[in-house]
Amino acid sequence: MIEIHSVTKTYDGFRALGPLDLTIDHEHVVTVIGPSGCGKSTLLRLLAGLEAPTSGRLAVDGRPIVGPRHDIGVAFQDPRLMPWLTVRRNIGLGLWDRPAEERRAAVEAALARVSLGAFAESLPKQLSGGMAQRVGLARALVARPRFLLLDEPFSALDPLTRIQMQDHLLDIVGDEIPNVLLITHDIEEAIVLSDRILVLGGPPARIRRDLVVDLPRPRHRASAGFQALKTLLLDDLFPRHGAGAEAA
């Protein structure tokens, strides 16, 4: 369970976020969408323990988030691979404090999860964009986190590779990774992947809509239900095109 209680974040007198209250429990994939600058990445950095809130409390499974933790994995838009390290060594970077055999087994399992075993000794410059993004995802998965944070992880990919990565994410979410929080600007991606969608407005970031996505999987972009949700979310993000919505 992820809990956010009365959280705010202020930078030099400018409130970027909150107060925000949110609980994520049984939903596998929760997606946050909103206009640029509304506070989405601020929320992710707080949950990752990369920044501290100005006020309020964040916790995972009842344990306060007070810094980076092994049970919270993070993958960014830029995979941020070390160019001089192989795929295998990039994935294992965060496990430097583990025993050698445990580290090796964890890295091999992460390689298998993203289907990159054949490229374990390759350097980042030898990888395609989609493969590099999978390495970043494997690095986030290697410690078997309880909670995975994804900040626009597929936005730089071509459309076909992006769809393949979306499918791959759905394949590994569930028992292995109980919860994912995804930030994206792509409304269709949000609908395809999510059990729940949060629409943020701001600054300061606040939840304008909290929407449960009850469409059956696999989700077809041309279906009436899919298009109805897309129209609803577009109206939230661009009220001039519709009535808009406040928190539901």
From TrEMBL:
CDD domains per record: ABC_NrtD_SsuB_transporters
UniProt keywords, alphabetically: ATP-binding, Nucleotide-binding, Transport
Protein name as catalogued: ABC transporter ATP-binding protein
GO molecular function: ATP binding; ATP hydrolysis activity
Alphabetical list of InterPro entries matching this protein: AAA+_ATPase, ABC_transporter-like_ATP-bd, ABC_transporter-like_CS, ABC_transporter_ATP-bind, P-loop_NTPase
PROSITE patterns with a match to the protein in the record: ABC_TRANSPORTER_1, ABC_TRANSPORTER_2
Record SMART domains: AAA
